[in-house]
Design a protein that fits this description.
The chain has 3 domains: about 210 residues, Aldehyde Dehydrogenase, Chain A, domain 1 (3-Layer(aba) Sandwich), CATH 3.40.605; about 190 residues, Aldehyde Dehydrogenase, Chain A, domain 2 (3-Layer(aba) Sandwich), CATH 3.40.309.10; about 35 residues. About 45% of the residues lie in helices and about 20% in strands. It is built from 17 helices and 20 strands. Strands 11-13-14-9-8-16-17 form a 7-stranded mixed β-sheet, sandwiched between helices. Strands 5-4-3-6-7-19 form a 6-stranded mixed β-sheet, with helices on both faces. Helix 3 runs antiparallel to helix 6 and helix 11 runs antiparallel to helix 12. The model has no long low-confidence stretch (mean pLDDT about 95).
Length: about 475
Amino acid sequence: MEVCSTVSEWAALTTEQRCRRVAKVATTITEAAEELVSLCQSEQRVDPADTLGAELVPFCAALKFLGQRGPRILRSRHHGVSGRPLWMWGIQSTVHRVPLGTVLVLGTWNYPLLLVGTQAAQALAAGNQVIIKPAIGSEQVTARMVQAFHDAGVPETALRQIDSSTESAIAAIDQGVDLIVLTGAAATGRKVLTQAAQSLTPTIMELSGCDAVILLPDADLNRAAEAIRFGINVNSGATCIGPRRLLVSNAMADLLTEALHVRLANVEPMVVHPSARNAVADTLDQALKQGATDRFNVVDTELIRNTGQMSPVVLDNVQPDHEVASADLFAPITSIIRVDQVDQAVKIVNECPYRLGASVFGPPKLAQMVAARLQTGGVIVNDLIMPTADPRLPFGGRGQSGFGVTRGEEGLLAMTTPKVVSRRRGRHALHLAPRREEDTEALYALLQILHAGSLSRKLGGVKRLIGSRKR
């Protein structure tokens, strides 16, 4: 295997060579799988299957995607004679996708392998140097992942890890980077954007979510309940696209609550991350004061504040304007919002400040129609969360859930900037000729010939052009 030891050597490799090298990381990740699973264990990540199924398997798929599809996605695009405007005679152009330079990845603690790793891999495949600032508490697993990249042939100078402190991120941005990729809370996003604005550094913001589930009247209630159970429990509720709001009719609300109670009653208490405990407890207290009902009688906000322990919470009688209905909570909580019509559910989703994703359960044709009306980064029909792990798909949100995308073809292109190279063949260039009196009339005629709305008007343009040449 060819070896490159510097950033310039890494960027100088062909796209195919870089993408092959990045794809090989899947092998070194697989060889370190047990160690990575162990390092991911925490109070929130108690089940090894969460790391394997939600991180390692889709992460390695994303790496293989880059090896197989990356070169085609990043290849230069040539624009020659076909489709060329008449007035561009002699011009041929090529659009190249070139690396931005240095990409700073500000990592997250809830999915430190899939999210951070895929962002770094895409930036590297595009030819960038990558700096990773891990989330506090994720230093060891990030270091082991970075080592897997190095073991696969990515030079240490092209991918390096810095300290996990906030000061470290601030210093890195001050020193100058060419793109910042943040996965985190909306509040963190505002701080990063404020600093990035000083140097006009572009950013990709993958921020908070408060995702909704719409249940249509003919939805499969058992399927929906199973999916919601999964979404509430996965990663101890620390998932930005978890089901936080259930928009359902009065007729179905009690049936759904019963179905969820059967599936959640015996779930072991989970532990909320220390950074989220006070916000979760405060939001629950406020919801209950505003009239929400704790359907399973499990809310103990003092226990949450002191230990982080909580059982899955299903709140009922939540109104769209309640704080909990638009809160970015990283905990096993969902709220039932009763709606009379589908239009009302669509309006609630589209007016929420967080619009990362949504799910619609119901007959496929009708559910697809509803999905088309939702102004979110993505919509899943008759499922939730898992389809977003497809390496071919971009991921990003709208509103306060951020902007820009990572992953998929669009995510890879986002790690580059287009560079256009145009060249003229031949010596004839009308715009370089001395300006003549009849040129204005000729340009009016050309515009009419090319873009008039009827054949007679176009023919009029031809006559006008002939007339201009007779002057």
